Amino acid sequence: MRWLSLSLITVVLVATIGLGWVFDVVYQHYAGDAQNDTADEIQHAEILTKQLADTLAESGDAQQFVAIWQNSEGYQLRVLPLAELVLPESLLVSLSAGNTLNLESDTDISIHRLIPKSESVLIMEIPSPEETAQQSNNRYWFTSLFYLLLILLFLLWAQPLITRLLQLRKTARAFGKGELSQRIRVGKVSYISDLETEFNHMAQRIEDLVSDVKLLSSAVSHDLRTPLARIRMGLDTLSEETDPVKRQAYEDRINEHIDDMVELIETLLGYARLDQAMLELERKPIDISQLLHKLVEKKQQPDKSITLNHNHKSAMVSGDPTYLKMLFSNLLQNALQHAQHRVHIEIGTSAGALVIWVADDGPGIAADMQSDVFKPFVRSRNSKHKGHGVGLAICKRVVDWHQGSIEVQQSANLKGAEFMVTLPKATTIT
Questions:
Q1: C-alpha–C-alpha distance, residues 243 and 240, integer Å
Q2: What is the DSSP letter of 115?
Q3: pTM above threshold 0.90
Q4: What is the DSSP letter of 86?
Q5: Which residues contact 121 (CB under 8 A, 6 or more apart)?
Q6: Residue 316's Cα: distance from chain center in Å?
Q7: Pairing of strands 305-310, 342-350
Q8: Staple 315 to which of 2, 194, 284, 289, CB 3.0 to 4.6 Å?
């Protein structure tokens, strides 16, 4: 949403300040020319009025001169006694002193000039310049054009947002109808890329939960049915047996089956609790190299060697130490169970991320099983060890919480299984 906020602020500033400044410069230039023309015309009329007033002072009959005077520019002349002018005292004093007085109305501009050696005032009326009305019309046009461009600019900005929101709604609607594989393709230029990414994470998590529920129900129906059947058979046999030694053997066997059931139920509950644990992650900078060194020292075995190769000074990620330790402990334990003699761990970097490889020289994982080994209660066909197939599912869940990835392939050197974990590096390292 940060990109959405920044782009909105940018558009508002450009639209209001940028467009406003451009239109203001254009309008001021146009209006300035019109005002200069009007000022020149008034100045010309003032000079003409002064000359006519001086001429009337020399002639005998001012009214007769005004009656026959005509002007091709539409100027009108009047002569009024000074006493008939209704003006403030200050203006009358200024006019009597020989100054020119300009009065403007809605229809015309009146230029007043006292006729020398008389008590009469010559008034020249000139029509208001046509540019004034035209200027008013142009102001409306400029204003309309400004708002039109403003709306177009906002529409151009909003069009990608509307498109992405419609796509988000379409995908969410399809997802709600049960198409759990639906995802939003996050565009390179998107105001809501964070929201789209979070939607995809949410959709993936829901799909994983639904898949886990199906696998859990399948595991419960399969793995619990077997020990229950054995317990029932043991109880039936025990009820018919009178030999104390055989009865004790049957009881011990029934207890073993009960222990298997308890272990399976605890495994199911533990895996289910992982979803609740995600809400309690405590992220902090963690040095993966130190964590792996401690795990290697703890899990050393006399008949199998564990090597750790790390050529970087620091391998810091941001995550929860408890669950990252669980992640690599499960991977290392899984490698030791299937390895014949060697387990190799290597730490590297790639495009701002930390990459950890855990490989062994065991039988490996078949290519058609590599995409399923991270699902709960799925076990490799090559595995001869007892377990419920939850360890790698826990690894996948922990990696997803830390916005990383985990893959499995055949090791090029050891020829067994090789797990590759990619985790984002810590943003700040102190």
A1: 9
A2: P
A3: no
A4: -
A5: 79, 80, 81, 82, 85, 95, 112, 113, 114, 115
A6: 27
A7: parallel
A8: 289
The residue with tokens 């190799």 is: 344
The pLDDT value given to residue 9: 67
Are 95 and 82 within 8 A, CB to CB?
Answer: yes
Cα separation values, 194 from 51, 182, 204, 301, Å: 79, 17, 15, 46
How do the residues of the chain divide into helix, strand and coil, expressed in percent and rounded to 5? Answer: 60, 15, 25
Please give the Cα distance from 116 to 118 (Å, whole number): 5
Closest CA to 111 of 45, 37, 35: 45
Dist. CA 326–CA 399, nearest whole Å: 11
What's the pLDDT tens digit per position in 241-289? 888 888 888 888 888 888 878 877 777 777 767 665 555 677 889 999 9
| Dihedral sign (CA 49, 52, 58, 59) | negative
Torsion over CA: 366, 372, 375, 376 (sign) = negative
**3-state secondary structure at position 350:** strand
Q: Phi first, then psi: what are they for 299, rounded to 5°?
A: -105, 15
- Amino acid of residue 32: G
User: Is residue 128 within 8 Å of residue 136, measured between CB atoms?
Assistant: no
Distance CA 203, CA 174 (A): 11
Q: Give per-residue pLDDT as tens, 119-155.
A: 888 888 887 655 445 555 666 676 777 777 777 777 7
**pLDDT value at position 429?**
43
Domains defined for the chain, CATH in brackets: 2-128 (no CATH), 195-279 (1.10.287), 282-424 (3.30.565.10)
Residue pair 182/203 in contact (Cβ under 8 Å)? The answer is yes
